[in-house]
Amino acid sequence: MKNILVLTDSRTHTGxxxxxxxxxxxxxxxxxxLWVADRAHPDNEPFFRACAGLDFGLQAVKADSGFDFxxxxxxxxxxxxxxxxxxVWIRLDHPVPDDFLSSxxxxxxxxxxxxxxxxxxxxxxKAHLIEIAQALPGMAPYLTPMKLCHTADDIVLxxxxxxxxxxxxxxxxxxxxxVRFRQPPHKTDIYTLEEAEIxxxxxxxxxxxxYLDPPGGQxxxxxxxxxxxxxxxxxxxxxxxDWRAKISIGASVQSxxxxxxxxxxxFLLDPWLRAMGIFLYGIDTLADNEDGRVLSEVNTLNxxxxxxxxTHTGRPVIRDCxxxxxxxxxxx
Length: 332
Known about the structure:
The chain has a six-stranded mixed beta sheet with strand order 4-3-2-1-5-6, covered by helices on one side. Strands 13-12-11-14-15 form a five-stranded antiparallel beta sheet. A four-stranded antiparallel beta sheet has the order 7-10-8-9, with helices on one face. It has three domains: about 1-110, Rossmann fold; about 130-140 and about 215-325, 2-Layer Sandwich (D-amino Acid Aminotransferase, Chain A, domain 1), CATH 3.30.470.20; about 145-210, 2-Layer Sandwich (Dna Ligase, domain 1). It starts with a strand and ends with a helix. By secondary structure, the chain is an alpha+beta fold. The chain has eleven helices and 15 strands. The protein is globular and about 60 Å long.
């Protein structure tokens, strides 16, 4: 029986978090025990801030078949010595300091970690799309123009060719830190170059991309891959009058299937990501202005929408994902 340590943060959880059914599926196995360490627990703060207190371990709950939303108040945390862990599953949202991830890999040198901390350091920023464009020429048909911006001049230069643009905070997640910059502005937009510069500087840079307005309307599609297997997809449709496909502000979720173009994206990206130790990830795609599909984002840190994919496809996606996760966490 192996001990798997799950690192998460209850402060960012919702009732639809796929962490809960995945953990319940994993604890039903007879070859692993799951211990869940919550970043929100005050005794765990030094560890999650700087990997301090490695000699003392963490406060963690032993997951069981009742593990669910609100576990931090219904289950008692007990001391868990870090040396007891046989594998680690990272399930955190930003902010996750690079120093913490580096220290995690140093401490668990020979242990399987999903996803590998060094791979997360490379892929957790939106600037990773720039690296994809440079390293994978085959992805060119599936990428829009983009520019990493650190100054107002950078934004102006991109606006010369793309007057309607989206600015993305480099470490935002869940649709956060994304604004539209256009003229004339809408009430959900930023209005001036000065506002764009303030937004950018508060985030140590932004990734600028064109706003896409396809003839058939926009939809944001999430495709989830685990250990080389495409588990499925869903589309997120913006609410009427908005362009942002964020569930938290009223976007709806619909069943979807990966297109041939999206299957090709996974084919090209998967070997590259696996070489970094990235085995569980989600890719987000958008319809381009010619009704094709382009890559919008690669999510490797806290991959969501797995539960929605199961709900909307009727397939046992949670079970399949848990099986593939277990294979990696057990070092198989």
